[in-house]
Write a structure and sequence with these properties.
Elements lengths: L3 E4 L18 H8 L3 E5 L2 E4 L1 H20 L3 E2 L5 E3 H7 L1 H4 L5 E4 L5 E4 L4 H11 L8 E10 L14 E11 L2 H21 L4 E5 L10 E7 L5 E5 L6 E3 L5 E2 L6 H6 L9 E4 L6 H8 L7 E8 L2 E8 L6 H8 L4 E3 L2 H8 L15 E5 L8 E4 L5 E6 L9 E3 L9 E2 L7 E15 L1 H6 L2 E3 L5 E3 L1 E8 H11 L1 E2 L2 E2 L10 E5 L5 H16 L3 E5 L5 H11 L3 E5 L1 H5 L3 E5 L5 E4 L1 H17 L1
Parallel strand pairs: 1-31, 4-8, 17-19, 19-22, 30-31, 30-32
Antiparallel strand pairs: 2-3, 5-7, 6-7, 8-9, 9-27, 10-11, 11-24, 12-13, 12-24, 14-23, 15-21, 16-17, 16-18, 20-21, 24-27, 25-26, 28-29, 32-33, 33-34
Helix pairs in contact: 1-12, 2-6, 2-12
The structure holds one RNA strand of 78 nucleotides.
RNA sequence: CGGGGCGUAGCGCAGCCUGGUUAGCGCGUCGGUUUUGGGAACCGAAGGCCGGCGGUUCGAAUCCGCCCGCCCCGACCA
């Protein structure tokens, strides 16, 4: 890498002592304070030199790994004609998140939120033969999404930097190879960034198979909940997690050690007792003895979903099961219409005309409590078969703490993450819609099999900070740091200090490192604070005090550990420390 | 989209409820003196269409209406 020295006195690094009121999230606050970014409008940011340096570090790593994996970089148009999006059907499907605009001739355009259409169009024009395959193309570009609610600074913006890649293969076997290559490339990218991350299985939608993974940077502020198994390596998004309830036999069975001692169905008057908690309190029972009934609107049709009282529904699972496009909780009016009772008294007994789906866990339950579909009444002693029978038992529940891995039965771990990468096999969805075909070795026309691979570059920068900071500021991993070293002159007016510091910075540069030379005529305190805030991994402090003893101080940002060495040995020491930091 | 909050100097805020004469404070900025190893002290100075438009009033940062911008929460608990 080419070395560099930047003089702080000439650099635009407008640090802030106080946090602008607009920021909530740590990464957002610190990036503003460190002078890395400034907001232009809601969800839209300018990158100042310091922030841009970090972004470029990320891009460089991404490029190197993508190229190594055989992908080629290109740059696609950001402004897309509507016709192309109409061809794929997404002009209508994408919804208000698509930034649409018109030109002076009233032609409709959009700003690309992703580029399947554009790349597929390009490839369908240029690729004809299997001999040209496989082809793997990527770009790093600003994307536009008109988010409902931009928030969290760079984590959810309306304009953001993204690496998006698309692969074109002859068949499934071939795309699987490409997919594996990309998976490995992604692992390498995030490893090289020095990030702690987890790869989770993601929803594959209609395509099926294990062909989608999300790369999550682990951070407590993460939007996504991740469930992982420490013993077998299974990891998934909470919404997609399949897990075993540790107590999936009924409470009654556990209590009595019998399974088929069926009690009579008994209607109990429960005036104004509606929630699970209220019912339990009223009947002196546990949520595990109760089956709750949720009325869900699936594409406008009410469906009754049954879950154990202490479990939550996972709408994604239900949606998948039903094959529905749109799911939402039914309105109170609908609930009254369906159950003939106010909200709070729904149950499975004597329901007709609606689909009834019960969670697997409820299958083993006996003599449970449920709403009576009647104002102020519940049943107790409800049993499947005799009193009610769902159309099917299926996995509907949201995994919860204490659940076991369904592969190896170990206890699952719950954590939070920020999605920074997503890879998936697209199949022929876009190639068929846009007619992107090739001739195979039998002269037969076939649709290209696609994969797509994204990395949120600007978001990754924010995620790195979420994962590594302290009360003084950012702590960059060496690979992403805007500079590896800051050389700080305590007394910039002193000739000897200046000479030694400049020489130090230049020798760092000669060694291929990027150095920030703080030559500002500021008080030492300010310079130390700024140095900590912007998070440069190593600091070399040159001042008259230490020079009297013939030394300079080298301090690691992360550990706070420092040592004093002679100026002649400083370079060597810095290189050694950096090596140690990178090896972590 | 629903709910809540905010908009006053580059940044952080007070003033507004209860209208009144030069609109304040801290930080930052500029000049000066003294300082100089963890955000200095003193002296002096610059910097505001109080988000915009309209209304009420003798008089509006302050009251009312509309608009714009920004932030937060929510859109899975029967």
């Amino acid at each position: 890498m080419a070395g560099e020295v930047i003089y702080y006195s000439k650099a635009l690094i407008p640090t802030l002592r106080e946090t602008p009121a607009e920021a909530e999230l740590i990464s957002h606050k610190l990036m503003l304070r460190a002078g890395m970014i400034r907001k232009l409008a809601a969800g839209i940011y300018n990158y100042l030199p310091l922030g841009y340096r970090v972004l470029n570090k990320l891009c460089r790593i991404i490029r190197e790994e993508m190229n190594r994996a055989g992908a080629q970089e290109l740059l696609l148009a950001a402004l897309n004609p509507a016709e192309l999006w109409r061809e794929s059907g997404r002009w209508e499907l994408y919804g208000p998140e698509l930034m649409r605009l018109e030109d002076r001739h009233n032609r409709q355009l959009c700003l690309g939120p992703t580029h399947e259409e554009v790349i597929t169009d390009l490839v369908r024009r240029e690729v004809r033969s299997y001999r040209q395959l496989p082809l793997n193309l990527y770009q790093i570009q600003t994307k536009f999404r008109d988010e409902i609610r931009p928030r969290f600074g760079l984590i959810r913006g309306r304009e953001f930097l993204m690496k998006d890649g698309y692969s074109f293969d002859r068949d499934d076997a071939s795309v699987e190879e490409t997919y594996k290559l990309m998976y490995q490339a992604y692992r390498r990218i995030f490893e090289r960034c020095g990030l702690r991350f987890s790869v989770v299985e993601a929803d594959t939608g209609a395509i099926g198979g294990s062909f989608s993974h999300e790369f999550m940077v682990l951070a407590n502020s993460g939007e996504e909940q991740i469930v992982s198994c420490p013993s077998c390596g299974y990891a998934a998004n909470l919404e997609r997690t399949e897990s075993l309830s540790p107590d999936s036999i009924s409470y009654q069975q556990v209590e009595e050690g019998v399974s088929d001692n069926l009690l009579n169905l008994e209607k109990v008057s429960t005036p104004n007792v509606k929630t699970v908690e209220e019912v339990c309190g009223f009947m002196d029972s546990q949520p595990q003895e109760l089956v709750k009934t949720l009325i869900i609107m699936a594409d406008g049709e009410p469906v009754l979903a049954l879950l154990r009282g202490d479990h939550e529904i996972n709408l994604n699972k239900l949606q998948k099961l039903l094959g529905a496009k749109d799911l939402e909780l039914a309105s109170p009016e609908t609930i009254e219409r369906v159950t003939q009772a106010p909200v709070g008294f729904a149950g499975p007994v004597s329901v007709t005309g609606y689909r009834l789906i019960a969670d697997l866990v409820t299958k083993g339950m006996r003599n449970f409590i449920a709403g009576a579909n009647e104002n102020d009444a519940h049943y107790r002693g409800v049993n499947w078969g005799r009193d009610a029978e769902p159309e099917q038992f299926a996995d509907l529940r949201l995994s919860k703490t204490g659940d076991l891995c369904c592969r190896c039965r170990s206890a699952l771990t719950f954590s939070r993450g920020i999605e920074v990468g997503h890879i998936f096999k697209l199949g022929t969805k876009y190639s068929e819609a846009l007619g992107a075909t090739y001739l195979d070795d039998q002269s037969k026309k076939r649709a290209l099999v696609m994969g797509c691979y994204g990395i949120g570059v600007s978001r990754t920068m924010a995620a790195a900070i979420e994962q590594s900071y302290d009360r003084y500021g950012i702590i960059w991993p060496v690979a992403l740091a805007p500079f590896q070293v800051i050389v700080l002159m305590v007394d910039p007016l002193d000739e000897q200090v200046r000479d030694i510091a400049v020489h130090m910075a230049n020798s760092l540069k000669a060694a291929g490192l990027e150095a920030l030379l703080d030559d500002r005529d500021e008080r030492p305190g300010i310079k130390f604070k700024d140095s900590d805030l912007i998070g440069v991994p190593l600091r070399v402090t040159v001042g008259v005090r230490d020079l009297k003893s013939g030394v300079v101080e080298i301090k690691a940002r992360k550990t706070g550990q420092s040592c004093k060495v002679s100026p002649e040995h400083a370079l060597e020491k810095v290189l050694e420390l950096l090596k140690g930091l990178q090896a972590e």
